[in-house]
Structure to design on (613 residues):
């Protein structure tokens, strides 16, 4: 079972991101369970959502406390909420920002992590470019597909189109594609740097 | 059709497939998504003919459902928590009059302190209201139970509550098999009311009954629930034949045949319990679980048969009967009258506290070694409780519990998960 936890704020599409991820996994024939953190969500308040993906029925109903992957939609939470709780050194971390981990003050924290699994992507900027709004959720899923290889970009695109029709859907698909390309390029550079 | 869909949406679609003619509801978390989806299905004409009545309260919701059902319409509503309490008087009227209303309860805690999260306090408080109570383990079962519930309610002419864990099920997006209209039409015949208000043939429903006949009329509600003990398994078997999956029934056992320790629970926590039991079985612990699907009527014989051979029974429940402890446990104990075994009551998950595999693992290991207190509170922070007890002891004007404790533990929902 692969468990993903998504952190952001009310209004940033955190719950929708988990739902889209589960749709993409379902689209690829897998079992998936997406659910929110059940707070009284409101604009701007910290929000958490979860997604589990497996090859058989998922029975467990507890929150994800030891995530295999973290997606941080809002980097202003990094030093406010315990977003890294239960994180494992071989886990994936994707953060919506143009800054790097060192610049975010996380260099020391992730020094024992697998660095090829830690990436940042300016998903909000990419979303603004393609949709006119800096709602980064769909773009981050494109980036996550590239980073984790867990789901395909095509499945993410189909999930977005199933949930959002017309220009909103297409804009978000374009943002997801752009973020996917960005992350794939970062990963090529990282593996080049490691090889060199 | 197999789809990845939110539990609330799936329940709304299942209810719509049952062709209700009147839906009356007042929104309350975590039930809201169900009635929002239904109102949309009515507005777009996908569910037709059906009247969606926006009422001004839950008391009105149940009253409209009673009126609609009495005129021969298939009636549905949904609520939770304080909403269920607000309709309590009308609940007893619906069951006393024998009106086959189906209602979803998206289980949620009852205040004070106000809390929107899941536990079973709401529906458990109405266990003696005369309504049949079915509890869903999964979202698939939640949507299936609604289809079974209309058939059960109408065959017996008695109302049925389908209880599903608020948020944990209602807000989870999962892979679900949504039946098609032909399948549901073949399973659920049109509503043929046993009694109907018709201006063409006037009758009255709801007469005053004095001491000479009150017990007899009341007994009939009990008699119907006893009939339900036969009918619920029959309907579940028919459902299996028609839809090809197990949903509903009275009880369901998992790895319990040779178990020395059997856990008893209701609702969505059964999934987490099953995963924990698999882990413990790998370590050689002989443990299993009994899930109660029908809490009213309570299947005394089936529970006795399933548990009678065990050495110990752990009833884990999401409600607290203040002043005594367990509610489900008291019923289970009655089923086990005369049988000697170790019995434990565990109160867990009140007000949405997550019930985790880690805690269950520890709990079941302690139970198997008979190290549990007869009444155990899972993951209770005793330091917090004791500090407040000390404050109460040291000052007469110690103030309100909730506010004192929040000053101790920090603001609501500030934890990582």
């Amino acid at each position: 079972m692969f468990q993903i936890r998504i952190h952001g704020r009310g209004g940033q599409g955190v719950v929708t991101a988990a739902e889209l991820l589960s749709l993409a996994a379902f689209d690829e024939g897998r079992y998936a369970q997406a659910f929110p953190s059940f707070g009284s969500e409101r604009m701007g308040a910290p929000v958490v959502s979860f997604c589990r993906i497996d090859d058989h029925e998922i029975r467990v109903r507890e929150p994800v406390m030891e995530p295999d992957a973290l997606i941080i939609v809002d980097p202003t939470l990094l030093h406010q909420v315990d977003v890294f709780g239960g994180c494992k050194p071989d886990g994936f971390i994707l953060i919506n920002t143009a800054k790097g981990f060192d610049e975010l003050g996380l260099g020391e924290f992730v020094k024992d992590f697998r660095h090829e699994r830690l990436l940042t992507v300016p998903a909000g900027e990419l979303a603004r470019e393609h949709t006119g709004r800096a709602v980064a959720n769909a773009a981050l899923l494109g980036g996550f597909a590239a980073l984790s290889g867990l789901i395909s970009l095509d499945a993410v695109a189909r999930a977005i189109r199933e949930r959002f029709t017309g220009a909103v859907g297409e804009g978000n698909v374009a943002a997801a594609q752009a973020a996917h390309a960005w992350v794939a390029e970062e990963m090529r550079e990282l593996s080049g740097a490691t090889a060199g | 059709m197999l789809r990845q869909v939110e539990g609330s949406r799936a329940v709304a679609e299942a209810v719509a497939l049952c062709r209700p003619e009147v839906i009356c509801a007042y929104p309350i978390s975590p039930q809201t998504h169900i009635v929002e989806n239904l109102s949309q299905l009515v507005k777009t004409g996908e569910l037709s003919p059906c009247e969606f009545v926006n009422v001004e309260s839950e008391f009105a919701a149940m009253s409209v459902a009673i009126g609609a059902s009495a005129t021969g319409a298939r009636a549905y509503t949904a609520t939770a928590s304080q909403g269920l309490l607000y309709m309590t008087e009308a609940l007893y009227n619906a069951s006393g009059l024998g009106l086959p209303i189906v209602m979803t309860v998206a289980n949620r805690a009852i205040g004070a302190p106000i809390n929107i999260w899941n536990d079973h306090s709401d529906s458990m408080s109405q266990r003696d209201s005369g309504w049949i109570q079915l509890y869903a383990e999964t979202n698939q079962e939640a949507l299936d139970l609604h289809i079974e519930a209309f058939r059960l309610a109408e065959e017996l002419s008695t109302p049925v509550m389908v209880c599903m864990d608020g948020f944990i099920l209602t807000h989870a997006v999962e892979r679900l098999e949504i039946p098609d209209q032909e399948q549901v039409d073949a399973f659920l015949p049109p509503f043929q009311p046993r009694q109907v208000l018709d201006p063409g043939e006037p009758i009255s429903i709801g007469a005053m009954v004095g001491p000479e006949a009150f017990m007899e009329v009341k007994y009939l509600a009990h008699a119907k629930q006893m009939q339900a003990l036969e009918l619920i398994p029959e309907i579940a078997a028919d459902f299996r034949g028609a839809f090809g999956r197990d949903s509903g029934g009275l009880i369901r056992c998992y790895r319990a045949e040779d178990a020395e320790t059997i856990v008893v629970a209701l609702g969505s926590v059964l999934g987490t319990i099953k995963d924990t039991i698999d882990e413990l079985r790998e370590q050689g612990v002989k443990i299993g679980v009994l899930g109660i699907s029908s809490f009213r009527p309570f299947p005394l014989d089936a529970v006795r048969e399933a548990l009678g051979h065990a050495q110990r029974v752990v009833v884990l429940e999401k409600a607290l009967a203040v002043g005594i402890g367990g509610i489900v446990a008291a019923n289970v104990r009655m089923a086990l009258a005369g049988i000697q075994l170790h019995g434990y009551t565990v109160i867990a998950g009140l007000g949405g506290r997550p019930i985790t595999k880690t805690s269950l693992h520890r709990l079941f290991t302690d139970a198997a070694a008979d190290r549990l207190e007869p009444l155990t509170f899972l993951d209770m922070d005793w330091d917090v409780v004791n500090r407040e007890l000390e404050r109460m002891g040291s000052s007469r004007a110690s103030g309100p519990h909730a506010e004192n404790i929040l000053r101790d533990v920090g603001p609501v929902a500030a934890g990582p998960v």
About this structure: The helical segments of chain A are 14-27, 123-131, 137-148, 153-163, 166-195. Chain A touches chain B at residues 5, 18-19, 22-23, 26-27, 31-40, 48, 58-65, 81-83, 85-86 (CB under 8 Å). The CA atoms of residues 8 and 77 of chain A lie 7 Å apart. DSSP finds five helices and six strands in chain A.
